[in-house]
Specification:
alpha/beta, 6-stranded mixed beta sheet, 10 helices, binds adenosine-5'-triphosphate, binds magnesium ion
């Protein structure tokens, strides 16, 4: 540790997530068909791939929101597919940020960031508030604690969702397309917060269509297609010089500026998500200026 760690040579620790031969089917629809993936402490792993390739399903299996059909998942050494596993204890180590921010609309920003600390971690009101405030400051919203979600822009709401997850002091943060629901001008602030988290050494698994972010911030990029990992490697390889035709085809589509992608939705994505419920979603309001 004598020299400052250049980008992507962050010290890396033990395995935080080990996915082995993971299969997941919904009825006859085989969505994941043998996923192997390891995430080590301090690593940022970006997962990319076409709509319907199983990225969210993989994340949801890691977060125990879905039960694998077969295979195993170890999170911080715990075999979560083992019936004896204390799932709640494992979940406490995981922070999750979704495309839709899922904030409670009737609670203030600060309350959104304290409620789980109080109920799950049994922190006192004062302690929870202190932790929440620290994390709101970290995401640039230290002065918006008394606001309600509807008074914030989408980008601000997503940063509150990140502060809420951080307030649980997780070992691993999982992000599922955290900027896909945002207006383009709001994407940058959220990515900046994520970049900062990465620089601080947070272990992160990020499903994203933001190729520039993946290329710059990720230690590894995982390209999924058809329920398998097609490529897993350094971003300069997977994005810069992909080995597989399927990866090349996908990247051409998302990187082509004439294609309406650039971090948003392609037609299949839009169709698949058209009917998605948006819990905690609130009426459109004009963005309020940040105070940071
Ligand atoms: N709860 C569910 N019940 C039934 N089928 C599901 C369920 N969740 C996902 N699927 C199916 O699994 C497949 C993969 O979905 P998934 O959401 O994991 O894809 P994705 O890669 O995240 O796509 P996107 O980029 O559009 O978010 C799709 O065919 C989807 O319809
Ligand atoms: Mg998805």
């Amino acid at each position: 540790m004598s020299t400052p760690a250049p980008e992507r040579t962050r010290p890396r620790g033990e395995d935080v997530v080990v996915v082995s031969d993971l299969h997941k089917s919904f009825g006859s629809n085989q969505v994941l068909t043998g996923i192997d993936l390891t995430i080590r402490r301090g690593e940022v792993v970006c997962v990319i791939g076409p709509s319907g390739s199983g990225k969210s399903t993989l994340l949801r299996c890691v977060n125990l929101l879905e039960t694998p059909t077969s295979g195993s998942i170890r999170v911080q050494g715990e075999e979560v597919t083992d019936p004896d596993c204390d799932i709640d204890a494992v979940r406490r180590g995981l922070g999750m940020v979704f495309q839709q921010f899922n904030l409670f609309p009737h609670l203030t920003v600060l309350e959104n960031c304290t409620v789980a600390q109080r109920t799950v971690l049994r922190r006192s009101a004062g302690q929870a508030r202190e932790v929440a405030q620290r994390n709101l400051e970290k995401v640039g919203l230290g002065e918006r604690g008394d606001a309600h979600p509807a008074q914030l822009s989408g980008g601000q709401q997503q940063r509150v969702a990140i502060a809420r997850a951080l307030s649980m002091e997780p070992e691993l943060m999982l992000f599922d397309e955290p900027t896909s629901a945002l207006d383009p001008e709001l994407v940058g602030d959220v990515l900046a917060v994520m970049r900062q988290l990465a620089a601080e050494g947070m272990t992160m698994m990020v499903v994203t269509h933001e190729m520039a972010f993946a290329r710059e911030v990720a230690d590894r990029v995982v390209f999924m297609d058809g329920g398998v990992v097609v490529e897993d490697g350094h971003p300069d390889e997977v994005i810069g010089n992909p080995r597989h035709e399927r990866t090349r085809t996908f990247l051409q589509r998302v990187l082509d500026p004439t294609h309406v992608q650039a971090g948003a939705h392609d037609a299949a994505h839009a169709a698949r998500h058209a009917g998605d419920p948006a819990p905690g979603d609130v009426a459109e309001t004009p963005p309020t200026p940040d105070h940071h």
